[in-house]
UniProtKB/TrEMBL annotation:
<dbReference type="GO" id="GO:0003743">
    <property type="term" value="F:translation initiation factor activity"/>
</dbReference>
<dbReference type="Pfam" id="PF05198">
    <property type="entry name" value="IF3_N"/>
</dbReference>
<dbReference type="GO" id="GO:0043022">
    <property type="term" value="F:ribosome binding"/>
</dbReference>
<dbReference type="GO" id="GO:0005739">
    <property type="term" value="C:mitochondrion"/>
</dbReference>
<protein>
    <recommendedName>
        <fullName>Translation initiation factor 3 N-terminal domain-containing protein</fullName>
    </recommendedName>
</protein>
<dbReference type="InterPro" id="IPR001288">
    <property type="entry name" value="Translation_initiation_fac_3"/>
</dbReference>
<feature type="compositionally biased region" description="Basic and acidic residues">
    <location>
        <begin position="192"/>
        <end position="204"/>
    </location>
</feature>
<keyword id="KW-0396">Initiation factor</keyword>
<dbReference type="InterPro" id="IPR036788">
    <property type="entry name" value="T_IF-3_C_sf"/>
</dbReference>
<dbReference type="InterPro" id="IPR019814">
    <property type="entry name" value="Translation_initiation_fac_3_N"/>
</dbReference>
<feature type="domain" description="Translation initiation factor 3 N-terminal">
    <location>
        <begin position="2"/>
        <end position="66"/>
    </location>
</feature>
<keyword id="KW-0648">Protein biosynthesis</keyword>
<dbReference type="GO" id="GO:0032790">
    <property type="term" value="P:ribosome disassembly"/>
</dbReference>
<feature type="region of interest" description="Disordered">
    <location>
        <begin position="182"/>
        <end position="204"/>
    </location>
</feature>
<dbReference type="GO" id="GO:0070124">
    <property type="term" value="P:mitochondrial translational initiation"/>
</dbReference>
<comment type="similarity">
    <text>Belongs to the IF-3 family.</text>
</comment>
Length: 204
């Protein structure tokens, strides 16, 4: 015997046989789920179950995975891993090498991290022209602007063509600590929360 949760009132219905429930269930679109684990030592235990739409379950699981991913991102940002430093040579190849660095910058900002960009000239390297330096600055700022929510945290410090640095802040953090509401979180009739267990077909 099992007891179903009424999908409209969220209350417990009268006990039914599992066989009767499964006989009326379209297993292509719906699933019979047990909301609490069995109690082997309780002879009067009747499983509390609910008929759930498979599409809704998929969406709920998808949302939970997205929230878990976001939570991981937030934890990484608020920990010591949050700050990143990116070094750029003023005389860098602006067609290839700079674009590669800027992709890293955009990736860090998209994760919500704080990024310190340091530009400097190599001691024994070629000295970049003022036009090249201005091009580097322009491309850095354009890369930051392309990331939604990212912003310049501090003004540029230093000298164009010499040693200088900026600090940029990635996109704002969201409330990833919230958990997805959905399957099995609440059951009616005063019954508590519990593990979901898919009910297997028994026609004996």
């Amino acid at each position: 015997m099992i007891q179903l949760i009424d999908p409209e009132t969220n209350k417990l219905l009268e006990p039914m046989t599992r066989f009767d429930v499964l006989n009326t269930l379209d297993t292509k679109t719906h699933r019979l789920v047990q909301l609490v684990p069995d109690e082997p030592r309780n002879p009067d235990f009747i499983p509390k179950c609910k008929i759930l739409n498979k599409k809704d379950m998929y969406e709920s699981e998808k949302k939970a995975k997205e929230l878990a991913k976001e939570k991981k991102r937030v934890q990484k940002v608020v920990s010591g891993e949050g700050l990143k430093t990116l070094e750029i040579n003023w005389a860098i190849d602006q067609k290839n090498d700079l674009m590669h660095r800027l992709e890293k910058l955009k990736g860090f900002l998209a994760e919500g991290r704080r990024v310190e960009v340091v530009c400097a000239a190599k001691k024994r390297g070629r000295k970049a022209s003022r036009e090249e330096c201005e091009g580097v600055v322009e491309k850095i700022l354009a890369a930051v602007e392309s990331v939604e929510g990212a912003r310049q945290r501090e003004e540029m410090k230093g000298k164009l063509g010499g040693f200088c640095q900026w600090t940029f802040q990635g996109r704002p953090l969201t409330n990833a600590a919230a958990t997805a509401t959905g399957v099995g979180k609440e059951v009616g009739g005063g019954d508590g929360k519990g593990e979901q267990v898919e009910v297997e077909v028994e026609k004996t």
